[in-house]
Design a protein that fits this description.
The protein contains seven helices and 21 strands. It is mainly β. The chain folds into two domains: about 180 residues, Immunoglobulin-like; about 160 residues, Sulfite Oxidase, Chain A, domain 2. The strands form five sheets. It has a five-stranded antiparallel beta sheet with strand order 1-14-15-19-18. Strands 3-2-11-6-7 form a five-stranded mixed beta sheet. Strands 4, 5, 8, 9 and 10 form a five-stranded antiparallel beta sheet that branches. A hairpin with a 5-residue loop joins strand 16 and strand 17. The radius of gyration is 23 Å and the shape is globular. The chain starts with a helix and ends with a strand. The N terminus is likely disordered. It binds ligand MTE and molybdenum atom (MO). Molybdenum atom (MO) binds next to loops.
Length: about 375
Amino acid sequence: MGSSDRISRREAVRRGGTLAAGIALIPTDLARRLAEVAPQEAVIPWTNAPEPGGRANTLDWQALTSWVTPTEDLFSVGHYGTPEIDAEAWRLEVTGLVERPMTLGLDGIRARPRRSVTCAIECAGNRGFGTFVGAIHNATWTGTPLAPLLAETGVRPEGIEVVFFGADQGTEEIRDVEVVQNFARSMSLEDATADDVLLAYEVNGEPLPAGNGFPLRLVAPGWYGVAHVKWLERIEVRDRRFMGKFMARDYVTLRQEGPDHEATWAETSVGRMNVNSIPAKVVRAGSAYRIHGAAWGDDIGRVEVRIDDGPWRPAQLGQGSDDPHTWTFWQMDWDAEAGTHTVTSRAVSASGEVQPAPDDPVLAQKITYWESNGQVTREIVIE
Ligand SMILES: Nc1nc2c(c(=O)[nH]1)N[C@H]1C(S)=C(S)[C@@H](COP(=O)(O)O)O[C@H]1N2
Ligand SMILES: [Mo]
């Protein structure tokens, strides 16, 4: 790489800060970045990526090196803030249409069969607005499977819905009435009893951090973040669909289906994740360039990358490609010529679902910002 100046300049551009103030800091910053990536490699910054914000501790894609997200890097979203929970006094209640309601303390839950899953969890609002582009993590959660626990309670035949309540609450206005309610989401009994749905008390081998659901959260691999109810304190089986705020008012995707003259409007509750990918960073090793990225949201069949207006070419799938619920890292070698280029990726699921382009009607006719899984195009200057 002829000169570190060139990276410095682009770094300064990327940061968009005052050049004079920036320059003094750059050599150390470059050294740090060089140390973070493999030797002989350096990140060439995108020129159109939003500045990674501190918001909700979201991921800086260009600094991504670890397949398992370190615990201190987990993003955190809480609609009613972070409740303070006394682990000694805390209890989980399993109730509703069950023959034998249960109340469990943390020790009781820990004494149950233990299971770990690694899965990508993305906020459904990710990439829906502004700089909120890194609301995703891929961590290892440990807890006890929910299905056997529900079976022990003896779900009554009329039970069809499992509602998960967090300890966090807020005041909501519903049809002119102000009510205090807890954060809650539901799943059908069938979805809730999938064998990898866990009541998780650890992440990456340690108790959950306060911001990520201590002492217990639901982990539902394959579902958008909102389904993974944190600070869990009550599970209730019901005989009606549950229509709480985070099922039926917020986290509802509104989309026109069909052409204008015969349009219907679909309002759907955010649920399973959609097939997705992003070009994370370009690194340089000697005179060669390599594009690194991630794909998630479905069982990934392949990832394709397009440079400028060129053909879609297959990327090489790496870690995670054998597991439908983790993210899959991918890479592609790039014989880049000097100039300004664009890099776009698209993931295709094993069953053939293609990550849509931004002008695909499925996105172009979507009104709300949730589920914005469009292809991402990044710009880069190669010197
Ligand atoms: N109790 C409770 N659980 C919750 C939420 C919340 O506000 N309260 N937010 C949800 C949303 S919208 C997301 S994206 C995920 C984020 O999980 P994380 O904070 O561990 O990253 O938590 C979900 N679980
Ligand atoms: Mo979310």
